[in-house]
Amino acid sequence: MVRGSHIPRDGQDPIWFSSLCLAHVWLHGYCLCTAVATPRATVLTDRLNYELTPELKRYSWDVIGRSEVRWTGYGETTLVEGHWFSGEETTHQYSVAFLVRIETAKCIISATPISSRLISIRLAAKPHNITAIQVYAPTSDHEDDEVEKFYEDLDNSIAKVPKKDILIVHGNRNAKVGPDAFLQWAGTAGRFGHGTTNERGLRLLEFAKSHSLTLANTLHPHKRSRTITWHAPNGEVHNQIDYILAPQRYKSSINKAMTRTYPGSDIGSDHDLVLATFKLKLNSKRKAKSPRLHFDLEKLKDPNISETFRAQIGGKFAALTLIDNDVDTMANSLKEVLVSTAEEVLGRKRRTIQPWVTNEVLDLCDKRRELRKRKFGSNRAMENYQLANKAVRKKMKEAKEKCIDDQCVAIEQVMSSG
């Protein structure tokens, strides 16, 4: 999808999936764009950097699924964007991959290689997480047994997807589904496919129906150039063999007018970019942070509290020196002593937005909060609440003035010292 044609909501950027078939998903004002790309045979890292990535700057995307990459093994390599791939162990054939924008990596839960023809990626989202599977089906040159093995692997992979996940399957299916399939496969195929359904197309429809999926890029009428997805090298044959499969449950969320081929994208491939739009909302996958303790260190300015803290720490440290322990055990013991003593003497620091909001002000606010619960009980309760409210405002004003005076004194001291 061309930049500027979507509107982010709630301060978050939209997220896009792609694979030259490109699918683009919206839910609750957020967008996920998914696409399928099938380059020619010799795609290497330098081509990804200098040809594919610049071309994709014309479109909004976050995750791109790619077919026929022809890399070996599975791993992650860092280009301009992060890139997960899956391939054959030794031979440079087949291979599917996901290209992930660096900013989108925080939404990635996992990227799982399945085979040289299948790879899945899982994203954190609302109301349910999203699992996208990039596929590269056997061409017409391969035997039917190999096609059945491909669909068997795909079925097994889908069986492992959490049931509540939103499933999107996209890629090069090497199958044709035409308008003639609509009468028998209504709900799975739309009225507006291209050409005539072939045997591989019927197998695709059987697969889609068994998983309650619909072919998103057959649901709306478009002119021929915006329907076909593949061009033969001789320029004489043009077919629609790349499809975006989405859950029938979310069929009403598909922006059918925006679900089409974008023939203007060019990376030297015989496949065109396909874009589909759904309503989805993605989440950042945040790493759990270890809790950090904040103690009220301001109390140490009081000489009496400072002396009490020093005495307790000293007494506990002296007991530790009598125990013969290794370094790690001693370090953990020292930490426990410091934390327990600070908790006992200083207490936790209460969170404040402004520096002049002191503990005394917060205590008065707590008292006012308790009085508020009973202020409508009697006239006396209302008077007590009003007095507490005045006390809070007075104390906060005094604390603010004192804070500003202290800052001015500190500035003067710094300026006088040069």
TrEMBL record:
It comes from the Eukaryota. Signal peptide: none annotated. Gene3D superfamilies: Endonuclease/exonuclease/phosphatase. This is Craniofacial development protein 2-like.
